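AAA+ ATPase domain-containing protein (Deinandra increscens subsp. villosa), 492 aa
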Amino acid sequence: MGLFLLLLIILCLFVSVRLFLYRTTLIHRLKRWGHWIEDRIHEHQTLKVPELDENNQDNQFYRKVYTYLNSLSTIEDSDNTNLISGKKPNGIVLCLDDDQTVQDTFLGARVSWTNRVERIEEKTVCCKKTFILKLKKRDKRRILQAYIQHIYRASEDVETRCKELKLYMNTAAPAEDRRSRRRWSSVRLTHPATIETIAMDSDLKKKVKSDLDSFMKSKQYYHRLGRVWKRSYLLYGPSGTGKSSFIAAMAKFLSYDVYEIDLSKVVDDSDLKMLLLQTRKKSLIVVEDLDRFISSNSPAVSLTGMLNFMDGILNSCCGDEKLMVFTMSSKEKIDSAILRPGRIDVHIYFPLCNFNSFKTIANNCLGLKDHKLFPQVEEIFLTGSTMSPAEMTELMISNRCSPGRALKSVITALQTTTPVNGKPGMRLHHNGGLPPEESSSLPETSSVFVMDGNCSIPVVKEIQKLYGLIRMKSSKKIGPSDQFSGSIERSG
Ligand SMILES: Nc1ncnc2c1ncn2[C@@H]1O[C@H](COP(=O)(O)OP(=O)(O)OP(=O)(O)O)[C@@H](O)[C@H]1O
Ligand SMILES: [Mg+2]
């Protein structure tokens, strides 16, 4: 009985001491001291993982380490961790701060990582970033190889689970350190457009989706052909027809980041190359308003520089799996060298509104599938009146409380033939908005989907079939010299 009482007292004492230690975080402190002493006893080695490699290209392993460290549970216990709003509403993600150290254990070995950030100039965002791994020398041989593999696997897991799309923009840099700097800054890509919300011919949507799908699955195919795994899209059409929104929608569909090149910040041809070298795989490289750039005869970037950027050997040096997307208002005056297959593989025309796109926008903005005013709207479209989807969207959004009023305002605007692109009263042919240069020789359609070469097999077959049909109709059209080059196809 006495012994039992004694054991009970010891147990109670043990529990209260432990509780006390927890409460005062003494255990935590004792552990830290223990580690500190251990660190003094053992010889350590430090290894650096810089953000850029010796060619100033992205060090892919740096990205992996970044993702891996931010996913560690120990980051929660670490001081100065940044709390950043996450993808989910009210969600928070943890993110290492500059010069913060975080601990990790692997196969019984304790290692630490420090996020070293050296500012190049005071008060600027430009900095040199390096992760520093510190581990015991005696552990290095035993764990390092396996640990690196573990980081690759774990970061890929995290990336596929919660990939957050980014929009990268190029930053201007003084000439002296253009080559040593990271030239892109990023924000989260939060554009709400999806391929479904874009008012576009439904067959065309299907074609684009299947083209993007087959591109993603064609790694082996491209490599077997000895080609860079890249595909180029040209989106062209009047202002406010959804070209930029479609880029965001494509990025979401593919789950790719977007690199948008602002040519006014590019200093010369080699600067443009450097920007391309610093992009990552699985991304969309976007150049908006290419026609404006070409007609401006920019002193900074030459036409040759642009041609090489679109289809140069450099494309093979900056990571595979890239989509290049260019936008233009019209390709009428564009040099055919720019538009040749390989530089541009898919041409998509974005027309002004027709009755079908009006219905999609009415459904998106007002939740209307049908309305008694629809026949009146259809009639006005038949007279050739039109407006841009952007204008139509604005009218509907500003009158969204009253669908009837919204439709009436659309009718009034269509009747007064709003000036489009500065041209008063632009009217369309009854083909629903084909580009002027192509409307005369084409079957009736609402959009143009022109694909040149480089498609994956099923798409090529479909194009050849269609091409045969069109060739029978018009002998004037340009045909492919073989199945992968020069084919020009049009379908609705
Ligand atoms: N096809 C469309 N479907 C749905 N909404 C559209 C469409 N086109 C334009 N919009 C609406 O108009 C707005 C502007 O469109 P967007 O910026 O994508 O046009 P754009 O073709 O890139 O114009 P610009 O040539 O002037 O840059 C979008 O935010 C969207 O709400
Ligand atoms: Mg745009």
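Confidence is low (pLDDT under 50) at residues 419-434, 438-448, 451-492. The radius of gyration is 29 Å. ok done for today
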